[in-house]
Amino acid sequence: METLSVFLCPALSESSVLFPVLGVAEIVTALPSRKLYGAPKWVHGFCVWRETEILVLDYQHFLNEQPVTRKKSHMVILNTLSNNEHLPFMGMIIDGVPQRVELSEHDLNNPTEAVIDGKTWHHFDLFDQKVWVAPQSEIEAEVAQLFKASPT
């Protein structure tokens, strides 16, 4: 039986976000970030990671979850899927430390989809909690449009 190595990232008040291990560049303690005023609420701002300024997102806002007080914030640094040289990485704020798990298709219960702000999010039950799979390519496309439209 084939398995997929993933990080289960506690990112939301009652759910987690799942990322394939190969898509994660690094997991770090939350870095200081600079707010980006006038951006959508899901854009947390920018931070410097390994001498590179990266965009930081907050999935609580993407999924219209009520923001919760963060226990101990960490950040997942993601390799982007697009070949955009201006956006090679993105950060995501999470609560706590991600857990690495091996998943098989038998672990995924009650798979469904939800369209939120025009993006299709997949979710399922895993270990008695709701887990979201982010539509990363759709998010990256929206981020690229956001910055293409903003004046320099």
The proportion of residues in beta strands is: over 45%
Through-space gap between termini: 51 Å
* Oligomer state of the chains in this structure: single chain
Total number of distinct structural domains: 1
Tell me the strand order in the biggest sheet.
8-1-2-11-10-9
Q: How would you name the CATH homologous superfamily?
A: CheA-289, Domain 4
Descriptive key words:
single chain; 152 residues; mainly beta; OB fold (Dihydrolipoamide Acetyltransferase, E2P); 6-stranded mixed β-sheet; 5-stranded mixed β-sheet; 11 strands; 47% strand; globular
Write a structural description:
The protein has one domain (4-149): OB fold (Dihydrolipoamide Acetyltransferase, E2P). The strands form two sheets. The chain has a six-stranded mixed beta sheet with strand order 8-1-2-11-10-9, with helices on one face. The protein has a five-stranded mixed beta sheet with strand order 3-6-7-5-4, with no helix packed on it. The chain is built from two helices and eleven strands. Helices cover 12% and strands 47% of the residues. It starts with a strand and ends with a helix. β9 (109-116) and β10 form a beta hairpin. The radius of gyration is 15 Å and the shape is globular. With 152 residues, the chain is mainly β. The chain has helices spanning 59-62, 136-149; strands at residues 4-10, 15-20, 24-29, 43-49, 52-57, 73-79, 89-95, 99-103, 109-116, 119-126, 129-133.
